Amino acid sequence: MTDNKITTPYNIMPDGKNKGWSNITVQRLLASEIHLGYITYGKTRSKRGQVELVPEEERIKIMGTHEKLKTPEEHEAIMERLLKNRMLNPNSRRNIFPLSGLLYCEKCGSRMRFRVGENKKQGQHWSALCYHQYKDGSKCDQRGKVMDADFFNALYDRIIHVDPNILREIELHGSRYNDTQVIIEVKEQELKKQKRALDKLHESYEEDMITKQVFLERKAVRSRQIQKLEEELKDLRKVVVDEGNYPTVEQIYERIGEFRELWSIAVTSEEKNRALKKLVERIVYDREGNRVELTVCYK
To answer: Which residues form a coiled coil (predicted)?
Structure first.
């Protein structure tokens, strides 16, 4: 945006020149409630010649008449992402480490971070650590691990040789997907049948073939059946969407082939990270004593 000379709303120099876009400028725009439609008054006040920020609860916030550019749900997602970015090591955000954004702690579920170390024996090396702190102030007791050549060799072997339990789970998902599709077809046929019956019921009443009392009683029964079927179909279609996003065994092996090719020519950490993200959704880390267990979750 700076290269294209798009003016920023901030960073105006005293001489009127624009300093250009920065990370902070973008973050301010993303977090601003103006784009939710709000206008806030009284953000600052002067006290004894000093300008200070007014606590948020004391500010005046009203809904403006300008165009809204994001929904409350989008704003919440943006703020959640910004919070995660603040908690994440900047080097990790830039994919400087091979497992940036991929390694998660088994004990607390938090994303793990990386620290660069150096000693005479190993030279420069990385360590995987969990910095999560619980609400009571206690810290996660996950033990870190130096990510040496043995670590990456074990990880590579685990990735390309898919755990049989994972394969069975993938096949089970595929089977559930097919079974759910069949159930949906049956339910859809039943729904059509009930709607046709309701139409005929209306015709019978209009032609004075049944009394109003009988019509209302039968209509209530049919309407309940239709409503129940529609709710069941809604839930089943959600299941189909979830199951449809799950990879097949064939897709996993195809991606493993692509990963092996990329990994074989990867030199930098960024290249290794890109190779991993072609195939892997996350890697769950757990250490007990000297034994490290890595669970690979495939895309």
So the answer is: 184-246
